[in-house]
TrEMBL record, chain A:
It comes from the Eukaryota. SUPFAM superfamilies: P-loop containing nucleoside triphosphate hydrolases. Residues 168-177 have a biased composition (Basic and acidic residues). This is Spermatogenesis associated 17. Residues 162-226 are annotated as: Disordered. It comes from Esox lucius. SMART domains: IQ (SM00015). InterPro entries: IQ_motif_EF-hand-BS, P-loop_NTPase. It holds the Pfam family IQ.
From TrEMBL, chain B:
It is found in: Cell projection, Cilium, Flagellum; Cytoplasm, Cytoskeleton, Cilium axoneme. It comes from the Eukaryota. Pfam families: Arm (PF00514). It comes from Esox lucius (Northern pike). Keywords: Cell projection, Cilium, Cilium biogenesis/degradation, Cytoplasm, Cytoskeleton, Flagellum, Microtubule, Repeat, Signal. Transmembrane segments: none annotated. Important for structural integrity of the central apparatus in the sperm tail and for flagellar motility. This is Sperm-associated antigen 6. SUPFAM superfamilies: ARM repeat. One of its GO terms (cellular component) is extracellular region. Its main location: other.
Amino acid sequence: RMARLVKLQNEIERIKEKYFTRNRFAEENRQRENEAAIKIQSWFRGWQVRAYLSHLHWKATIIQKIWRGFRARARFRQTVKIQRRWRGYYVRKYVHNYYARRRYMEGLIRKNEEIRRDLVDFSEFQRREREQIAMDREEQKKTVQAQRMHFLLSTKQCPGVFNSPFKPEPDEMELRLRRTKPQPPTASPRERDSRLGNRIPSTHSSASIARAHGAQPLPPIPIKKPQGPFREAAEVWAQRHRSLEPSLRVQTSITDLEEAQDQLRLEEWRNRTVDTLFQPFSKAHQNRRYERMIHTSSSFQPVPYGNKHFREERPDNLLGKKPFNRVFTTCQVFDKFGRLFSNAGKIV
Amino acid sequence: LYIKINTYCWIIHLCLLVFEQYQKARTQFVQTVAELATRPQNIETLQNAGVMSLLRPLLLDIVPTIQQTSALALGRLANYNDDLAEAVVKGDILPQLVYSLAEQNRFYKKAAAFVLRAVAKHSPTLAQAVVDCGGLDALVISLEEFDPGVKEAAAWALGYIARHNGHLSQAVVDAGAVPLLVLCIQEPEVALKRIAASALSDIAKHSPELAQTVVDAGAIAHLSQMILNPDAKLKRQVFSALSQISKHSVDLAEMVVEAEIFPSILVCLRDPDEYVRKNVTTLMREITKHTPELSQLVVNTGGVAAVIDYLGECQGGVRLPGIMMLGYVAAHSENLAMAVIVSKGVPQLAICLSEESEDHIKAATVWAFGQIGRHTPEHARAVAAAHVLPKLLALYMDPDSSEDLQIKAKKALKSILQKCTHLPALEPLLYEAPSNILKHVVYQFSKVLPHDSKARRLFVTSGGLKKVQEIKADVGSALQEYINSINNCYPEEIVRYYSPGYSETLLERIDKYQPV
């Protein structure tokens, strides 16, 4: 124990030294180490807080997520409700309207019934029309037949073909014959034409005979005059039988001109005895000689007039001598005109 | 001198006598031949005697009556058969006739047009021969004549030429005949109207362009005015012309409808003449086949009811256009199909199906049923309620029916069955149907039975479940699936009870059972 104590006493100085040096070092490093510790601590605390914050954020996000999803889905359910109701309404009203279709089908059934009835009525009507027309035609035919065979009518003496004495009643044809008027046999074409052209009917024949003898018609027996603005019978008679007074234009026949020409021709033929015509001064033309035109000639040669000789030229009178020279060379009087006097007047 | 004059006159008289006798002989010959040619049995003899070569020079005779009568005789001969018509063409008679069509008087023109018509009617080659020798221009010129008889003969000839094919019709149109024909329709003579209407119908039937040309000339208005004319033959031609025009396209059909033919057309469905009625239904068919709007129009005016009544009254082949019209109307939409059902169309069609014996009419009826029943279960129920499905099945299975009929029956059955939920009508089909039809029937049962308890009960009591058990199906096929789904609707004991051979298994259990 004593040794340890002496060691320790020796050590005291070193320990004090060491203590002081250590203190010194610690003092020197204290700032630095303090700051380092602070840094580490601050970093750590910051990290802790951040971790906690991010944890909080995450939780908050989860809550918000759930809440917002809920809200959106609720909204979605609401809009789906609206859309559902709208689509149902639209389809039921416009795309496939059951009640409208039912009404249409009922209306169609009624319309069909109506059309069927109308068609039946119309066909009945047409059938009756056709039958009526056929019956009318039959009637017409039978009437015509009865009219033409009227001679088969039964008389008191002799019963006709259709009125058999053994039958209780006469035949339908017999009754028809009794009803209809007989048609007289159709006349031949000549008589028909004359009847058409017959102006005065035969009932007035007595008056015409009287007039032919030059007498006036007797005045009518004065019976009760009819009321009204009627003219006298004599006046009417005169007007009715007034003769035709055609104008000159109507009177002349259409071939009047030709007839007149024929008449003239006949007269000519009758009266003319001399055939030659009288033509005073008719020989005057015979003295003239025909002068052909300059530009026309049937011989295709140049005409000598104007080319070979002039008027008044008589080559025969020359008697072989040469004709007078008419064309000369030019007179050179004016050749030196202008050049003689001065250079200024030089003619180029 | 007097004696000389006398003998001279006598010689002249002798000469002229010969000519007179010859003329009389010619006239008599030609008139007798023309008269004999009216009867068919004489024509063979005449042909053998070489009448063509004798008639040919008489066409160029001086006397006009002989010319006309010989042309008439030639026309009658050529009318009879096509050998004689070919002989007319080969004998180079046509150019002479065409030339004289422009020159001569109206009787000759009529006779010449008659010959051209008689030649052109037999075949397209002969008609082409008539066209090649310039007949078209001459005929069109004679269409401008005053005399209605000449116009009629010319229009008839043009109609016969245009009848054969599109090229000839185009040639007739190019010659400018259409406006003149439309003018002819407006004439007061009924015969001329008839012929002009039939000529227009023959021109318009080949292609849409030709129909458009006819429409552009303003034919529709005049044709529609003649709908209520009392003459039956005229009405035939008018309706035929309108249907040929409207069959090509929607626009043409709409133009025909715009001429306000409905509802006056429905009146003509009660006409006493059979062909008028047939042509009216043909026109209605051509109109309704294009679009739903046009069908709707026809339905709204009550056309469907009128056609159904018409089907009830007539017999035979004339029913075909009416049946097709109902099919077209029902094909467009389910409203229109319901309209057909509501107008009592289904029972009438069922009567048609049972009465008619011709295969093509049956095929049309079957197709019409398919169009009516394929839209919704209501429609299928209406069709099935008329006991139509067994008949369809019978037609499909019958070896005598034609291939077309079988195909149509199968299609119709399939399309109706896919919508049919009316089980009492489906049950008879379970027993007789072949496997491809059976599949659909069982499918329908498997759709309905899981939801309807009354139907399930009925199904069991009527023996349907028993039948279903007897069906042999390949494992894994659709049919097996459907059978399984039906079986799942019932408790096991019942299924086992109705399965085939159950009595044997029960008896086997007796054998195995040891009494206690």
